[in-house]
Amino acid sequence: MARSTPNEVADYLLCKAREHGDNLSPLKLQKLMFYADAWHMVMKGGEQLVADHFEAWVHGPVLRSIYFRFNHYRWKPILDDIECPSLGDETSSFLDEVYEVFGGFSGFELEQLTHQERPWQEARGALAPDAVCTTPISKDTTLQFYRAMSAG
User: Fold this and answer.
1) Within 10 A of 10 (CB to CB), how many other CB atoms are there?
2) In sequence order, which residues have a C-beta less than 8 Å from that of residue 98 and are 6 or more positions away?
3) Angle of the 107-115 helix axis to the 26-43 helix axis, nearest 10
4) pLDDT tens digit string along 25-60?
5) Phi, psi torsion values for 103, nearest 5 degrees
6) Residue in 14, 4, 139 with CA at minimum distance from that of residue 69
7) What pLDDT sits at residue 96?
8) What is the dihedral of CA 116, 55, 25, 150, to 10 degrees?
9) Which residues are CB-neighbours of 104 under 8 A, at least 6 positions away?
10) 55 pairs with which residues across the strands?
11) The pTM is what?
């Protein structure tokens, strides 16, 4: 299965949320994308959903390209007119599952979850909670952490 681009994943999740009467904030979208990539690696033998690395920002994992695409919404729902991408049945089904598991959480709740987990914590190291950080979150650490959680 070919990797998806960050924009394809973002667009799919935005469309999925709208089908459920939900509008995603940039914060919530970023966390859904992080969890989608993490669990994709666990479920698909290490295969990344997106090649880009998430960075350990103050409010949790962030894909820089998606941040700059939607940052003008700040904390408000993303209301762009989005065309749903065709990702193939396997990827679409997988993202549907991610949304079913994580979509009921608020962006703030997802942020708090990521702050309690090793991938984000390790990338930030000993930085102050409000310190700027662009350190990439290790895909290896992410895979190991969530693989252990799934075995748990």
Assistant:
1) 28
2) 13, 32, 35, 36, 39
3) 50
4) 999 999 999 999 999 999 999 999 999 999 999 999
5) -65, -25
6) 14
7) 97
8) -40
9) none
10) 62, 136
11) 0.96
Q: Report yes or no: 8 and 54 within 8 Å, Cβ to Cβ.
A: no
The amino acid that residue 60 corresponds to is: G
Q: Which two tokens stand for residue 106?
A: 């608020």
The C-alpha angle 102, 56, 11, rounded to 5 degrees, equals 45
Q: What is the mean pLDDT of the chain?
A: 95
Distance between CA atoms of residues 1 and 20, nearest Å: 27
Contacts of 118 (CB under 8 A, 6+ apart): 141, 145
35 with 94: CB under 8 angstroms?
A: no
Please name every residue paired with 136 in a beta bridge, in sequence order, or none if there are none: 55
Pairs from 72-80 (Cβ < 8 Å, separation ≥ 24)? 73/25, 73/26, 74/26, 75/25, 75/26, 75/27, 76/25, 77/23, 77/24, 77/25, 78/14, 78/23, 78/24, 78/25, 78/26, 78/29, 79/23, 80/14
Residue 1 has pLDDT above 70, yes or no: no
Contact 25, 75 (CB under 8 A): yes
Q: Which amino acid is at 6?
A: P
Element (H, E) at 136: none
CA separation for the pair 58, 5 (Å, rounded): 24
- In this predicted structure, what is the pLDDT of residue 3? 79
Q: Which pair of structure tokens corresponds to residue 150? A: 């799934």
